[in-house]
Amino acid sequence: MDQSGSLDYQIIQKSVPTFYFVGVTTRQSSIIDIFPLWMEALGRPEIIMEGVDHALHDQRQAYRQTVAQIKNDPLSLGGLITAHKIDILEAAGDMFDVLHPSAEITGEISCVSKRNGMLIGHAKDPLTSGMSLDAMLGEGYFGRMGGEVLIFGAGGSGKAICLHFIHKEDLGDRPKRIVVVNRSKPRLDQLQLMVENLNTDINFEYICNEDPKHNDEIMAGLAEGSVVINATGLGKDRPGSPITDKGLFPRKGIAWEINYRGELDFWYQAIAQVSPRNLTVEDGWLYFLHGWTQHIAEVLHLEITSDIFSRLSEIAEELRPSLVPQPRPGASGSMK
Ligand SMILES: NC(=O)c1ccc[n+]([C@@H]2O[C@H](COP(=O)([O-])OP(=O)(O)OC[C@H]3O[C@@H](n4cnc5c(N)ncnc54)[C@H](OP(=O)(O)O)[C@@H]3O)[C@@H](O)[C@H]2O)c1
After folding, report:
1. Best probe residue, ligand 1, of 124, 183, 188, 192 (max atoms within 8 Å of C-beta)
2. How is 12-77 classified by DSSP, letter by letter?
3. Helix (H) or strand (E) segment spanning residue 130
4. Predicted confidence band at 269 (pLDDT cuts at 50, 70, 90)?
5. Whose CA is nearest to atom 18 of ligand 1?
6. DSSP state letter for 98
7. Which residues surround ligand 1 with Cβ inside 6 Å?
8. Separation of alpha carbons 111 and 121, rounded Å
């Protein structure tokens, strides 16, 4: 038997409510220290976080075991998945009672929760990357600035960012053109397929390239006020940047490095152009905060009001200095 699963899996009956963090090296993440402080602040100090590390592209049965534990143990409340979002849906999608449309459209599960005895899978990146972009751009950015969007990386985050813009109702919140650059073709094709199945007036361009010099040329062709996003993981997961030090960011534009820790080469390249190009530079800290708080909200059935978000941000900020790189002189996490 391999449906609701309990006979084929080892289910541990937890003695305390448990929130799972499914990743690769979960113990190294700052959320391990932040989570207990947040639970205290939310009045739920009894909830603990448990990291579950899987090898990248782990065995199907290993992913199913993780999902079965959450599904079958009453005190296993749910959790956040990173790095295995596509693999978990592929390996264990049938174990979920409900897949939110976000999971269906993106082909990923980042959030596992339970409601009325049902196991639910969501993909939260379109929401949480979107919350970060909304804070960064403000209302009607493209109506005011007229820029375009260039995204390096057609993975989970790149796809989520595209969805966010496609779903924007007001014309002024949608760029006229989005250029997506990815080093290999399959992810680019998947993204193109997703976009073509949706109704959008945004003009998409897909470029398969990993030569930073060519990326500089692509970036040089953008209109003033454009938004350039590094969603490749270069500068954290692997060394480097999608562009060279000579690449020129769009004047009066915005550069967003979606990570907040690591070497962050792209972020430093952008910081160097703050005054000469009148560039605004952001990192991924806000994305991290929105990501975690929205997953916690779903699993614990809470609403994160702006007051609660501010309080949780303040708490996390105290643990931030060890996470962010020391800015070069004159730089800060969010700069114009
Ligand atoms: N701040 C936060 O809270 C937050 C939230 C989400 C993600 N992130 C971070 O954002 C990064 C991306 O996440 P993800 O989930 O989108 O990862 P992902 O699914 O692995 O996507 C990364 C994409 O970048 C592409 N790529 C790699 N090098 C490239 C290059 N030189 N030029 C163009 N494309 C390149 C990869 O191409 P291939 O298809 O060829 O592999 C892949 O499609 C990770 O480092 C992640 O940790 C941060």
Report:
1. 183
2. ---SS-EEEEEESSGGGSTHHHHHHHHHHHTT-TT-EEEEEE--TT--HHHHHHHHHHHHH-TTEE
3. helix 125-137
4. very high
5. 155
6. E
7. 152-158, 181-184, 187, 210, 231-234, 236-237, 242, 258-260, 284, 287-288, 291
8. 6
Q: Which CATH architecture has domain 127-285?
A: 3-Layer(aba) Sandwich (3.40)
Tens-digit pLDDT profile for residues 89-144: 999 999 999 999 999 999 999 999 999 999 999 999 999 999 999 999 999 999 99
CATH number corresponding to 18-123: 3.40.50.10860
> Does 326 score more than 90 pLDDT?
no
Pocket mutation for ligand 1, best pick of 22, 106, 110, 157 (most atoms within 8 Å of C-beta)? 157
Domains 18-123 and 127-285 share a fold: yes
Domain assignments of the chain as residue spans, ordered by start? 18-123, 127-285
pLDDT band at residue 319 using 50, 70 and 90 as cut-offs: confident
299 Cα–ligand 1 center, Å: 25
Give SS3 for 180: strand
- Kindly give the distance from the C-alpha atom of residue 245 to the centroid of ligand 1, in angstroms, as a whole number: 20
Tokens linked to 185: 């073709």
Q: Which of 248, 270, 274 has its CA nearest to residue 259? A: 270
